Amino acid sequence: MSVAAPTVRPARSSDAPAVRALLEAAFGGTAEADLIERLREDGELLLALVAAQPDVVGYVAFSRLIVEGTSHADPAIALAPLAVAPAMQRRGIGSALTRAGLDMFTRAGEALVFVLGDPAYYTRFGFAPADAFASPYAGPHFMVRRLAPHAPSTGVVRYPRAFADLT
Q1: How many domains does the chain have?
Q2: Which of 3, 67, 75, 91 is most open to solvent, judged by the fewest CB atoms within 10 Å of its CB?
Q3: Radius of gyration of the chain from Cα atoms?
Q4: Please, which residues have CB within 8 angstroms of residue 149's CB and are 6 or more apart in sequence?
Q5: Does residue 46 contact residue 64 with C-beta atoms inside 8 Å?
């Protein structure tokens, strides 16, 4: 008997306990779960998706960033965190969540998405090194994906306050 593929859908408020448990299990601590609660409380979450089967087995969040240029600021997006239940990893759930979110933001006319993660994983979604952008997360794991041709190519990336609390 095969197991049905998870359904990707927007997260509901009733998913919060399951999302917290998932994040704690996937990351081995509370930092990412605390980040999501803080982003939610601060109104900084743009989109949160879950993969459900029917229990929540995957989660991805997107929050608003600002890219400050020399004369103006442009909106951008942070993809963080992405988590899949440890027993469900390597089944395409994280990929499905990531693609669904990126597709939604492309259709909405957003210009840039930033992620801090494994280049071997995120380059498959079109992410590339974000070397031209200044950030406290600058380095080989700081990447960007352009969703629109008008996207800025340089600037200082400002994250929501909640990210500063990550330890």
Answers
A1: 1
A2: 3
A3: 16
A4: none
A5: yes
